[in-house]
Amino acid sequence: MNKTEYEAKMQQLLDDKMTYKCLGRRSPLVRLEKRANEIIETLNECGDIDWKQRARMKKNNTQISRIYAFPKLHKPGHPLRLVNSTTNSPASALSIWLDSFLRNIIHEKYDVKNSQQVKEKLRTITLDENDIIVSLDIVSLFLSIPIRQTIDLIMKKWRKLYRKTAMSKKIFVELLEFVLLEAAVFAYGDMYYQQIDGTAMGINVAPTIANFFTNEIIDQVLDTLDWTPKMLMKYVDDIFVIIPRNKLDEFVSKLNAVFPQKIVFTVEKETNGTLPYLDLLIQRGDNNDIKVDWYQKPTAANRILNFQSQHPLKQKEAVAYGFFSRVLSIVDDEFKQKNIDKIISILRENAYPMRVIKAQLNKFIRNQNRPPQTPSQRTSEPIRRKRFSYFPVISEDIKQVFKGKNEHLELAFKPMNQLGETVFTKLKQKIETPDQINAIYKIPCRGKENEPCSKNYVGQTKNRVRVRMYAHKTSTKHITPDYVKPVAPDEKSDDNKTALTIHAENTGHQPDFENVSILDTEQFLSRRLVNESLHIYCNDSMNLRRDVQGISKTYASVLQSVKARNTQSQRRNVNSNAANPMTVTQPIDEEEGE
User: Residue 554 falls within a domain, yes or no?
Assistant: First the structure.
């Protein structure tokens, strides 16, 4: 799917006025932040969260959600599945809290967590000649959930909830409406939208809402029947049913009648005695028993972690072992050899040598035959793992050094290169430079007429970059090309000024606020300060000496070579215009600033 087709399909979905409302180009971020913090304060006053949770949940540097989509390649026309990236959004903390709270009213009598549980439930089932095996699926479940009716259904369970909270019923309704409706705002392109019905994948509480809503539909329908399905289980909205053949139409019509025009169930019946469900191929046996084989969709690419990739050997071995474990644990014995051959073929396609394949298959067989450990046989102290970046050969040598030093400490290696960063298309909309938070930024110096300057100022901020830039502009607005620093010290000493202001005052140079760039982002302050120091060291910066005092001299030679390369590049680009300019020339708008 090319970019033009993707954008056309996205816009077609967003033009659905029954689901989305366009808010224009004015960001509602500050209003949503304020409202979220008010609700968090109320929860704290009620005693539902303590002061530590309150401090963790309250934020003033959030970002508007961004929406993107994945094409469903296994379906005709490749429709899009929308995903709302709500990380660090105004309502994300409340959504997480609400998700855990609503689990108090979610029953799991129909739910299965994986294919292994499906197989276990089917083990005791004997089919009758009149039985039919079917799977049901709700068309676009998340987008189809009627939120107002769902809130009403949740409030009918208030008698179960109020014992676990000190908040009033009114406050709880306000919390539901804020998380599910008012804060369901996202950005796409240069426009802001609000989802006025349904919910979206990516919202923390959405799976729980979908699970609750599907349970309610099934409960309502089963209460109206004078018979019971032989088997009913579900994985989110994928419902598996064994039902009398002559009752199928009645069952499906009653499911579709609970929320007509909104919720539509599709039906897939067994064909020649077989039906795919999740990654299982469920088959009707000769003796009316049920047999289970492994199932792959026709669009399966058989692509797994390639053995030639730069990952630790242990990770590649774990991929092979996990493949055997996942498939052979769910299929019946008569299908095992066929699936072993299939797995070996897939592993060979991904460059796995036979010695590794055989070793992991034998390891799985040994573990299958080994009795499970009792709690007393397990290590009393859990193993702690420290994360390190992975470099071929070097990392393996480092691991050998640590091996045996501490039996409760292991090194866990993380690959440096990610396919998502180098190969795959980035569908998620990029956050513009002024709206970045937790950023390490670089401001080049423009110099002045006939006096170019290659110096840069490197800084960090937890707030939005636009707010930090406005502060820098304010502190340097008195600097003109003819500016002469007063001989007598003013009331504000240099200790309270940034290196950017000091450089501008000493030289009369102008900071180039139109070409601010983001060097890195880091959520945690301690890591952000280290990263800032490294970037100061590696750039031809105007920062003060104290800004890099935390960097060990051990890295000096490496950093000096990086700095020399960066300095040469910066000097070649002096007076050139960088791409994607940023300009902060006006005071921050009430809806935009902090």
Answer: yes
As a whole number of angstroms, the longest Cα–Cα distance in the chain is: 101
Structural domain including 448 reads 433-572
- Please compute the mean of the pLDDT values over residues 190-218 and round it to a whole number: 93
Supply the pLDDT for residue 165: 86
Secondary structure letter of residue 433 according to DSSP: G
Query: How far are the Cα atoms of 351, 451, 534 from residue 568, in angstroms, in the given order?
Result: 42, 18, 18
Cα–Cα distance, 191 to 189 (Å, whole number): 6
Residue with tokens 């276990």: 120
Q: Are 292 and 119 in contact (CB under 8 A)?
A: yes
- Could you tell me if 481 and 517 lie in one domain? yes
CB 85 within 8 A of CB 68: yes
* Domain count along the chain: 4
Q: Is residue 527 part of a domain?
A: yes
* Whole-number Cα distances in Å, 302 to 327, 339, 349: 14, 14, 8
pLDDT of residue 560: 65
Per-position DSSP letters for 27-77, written without gaps between them: --HHHHHHHHHHHHHHHHHHTSS-HHHHHHH--SS---EEEEEEE-TTSTT
Average pLDDT for 212-229: 94
Do 446 and 527 share a structural domain? Answer: yes
Which residues touch 450 (CB under 8 Å, ≥6 apart)? none
* Mean pLDDT value across residues 209-215: 95
SS3 at position 231: strand
Closest residue by Cα to residue 304 from 291, 293, 320: 320
pLDDT value for 533: 84
